[in-house]
Amino acid sequence: MHCQDIINKCLADGDSVIPELEAQKICKAYNINCPPTSLVADKQQCLKAAEEMGFPVVMKIFSRQIVHKSDVGGVIVGIANMEDLDQAYDRLMSNVKKNCPTAEIGGVVIQKQMPKGIEVVVGALKNEQFGPVVMFGMGGVYVEVFKDVSFRLAPYDKEEALRQVKETRVYKLLQGVRGDKPCDIDALCEVIVNTGLLISEHPEIKELDFNPVFCYPDGCAVVDARLVL
After folding, report:
1. 62, HSE (Cβ side, Cα atoms, 13 Å)
2. Which of 187, 177, 194 is nearest to 216 (CA)?
3. What is the mean pLDDT of residues 71-76?
4. What mean pLDDT value characterizes the chain?
5. Full-model pTM
6. Which of 5, 13, 18, 98 is buried most deeply by CB count within 10 Å?
7. pLDDT tens-digit readout, 35-48
8. From the CB of residue 66, how many other CB atoms can be counted at a distance below 10 Å?
């Protein structure tokens, strides 16, 4: 399905946030890499999907009524084997039933758990005065603590994206510290540029948040993609 078709369907369905799997399809169309992900209907399909993509995996509840899944116990990480997954499924369903009893459950998302990399955030929003703006900075749980971020008006090229990255303190970590290999900053700049294109080309998208983005010596992966209409 074309990106615009996905957006139009979400608007028609009354979604304020594009569901995760659809968000990943849009990311893929813009060469923004996400982990292997499957939407499944029951525990048996969970086991099959996890076996096919390989452990460890992450399990997330899929519901249009639940935007912040972690707040209701709707995300379980570090599932290492079939026994873990069997127990995690029951725990996930119990958490959601307890914390969101009226939510309609559309299934469960199984996602390949990516190895830890340097965590950064790439975000974007529509500014009323200036138009599309892209943010880059230190990601994960530290984004609100250190506020180590830099902004640019979109769209722009990789050279400008590199200047943006260099304005942040996380740039030193990306270069490699204490014997760590440097991260693939070229791939990161491509994610930033493509994020700018994505929000510039689709006026219906009000804001987007890729956090965390794991940076590796050989590429990047957007672990969590949130697109708000």
Report:
1. 20
2. 187
3. 90
4. 93
5. 0.89
6. 18
7. 999 999 999 999 99
8. 20
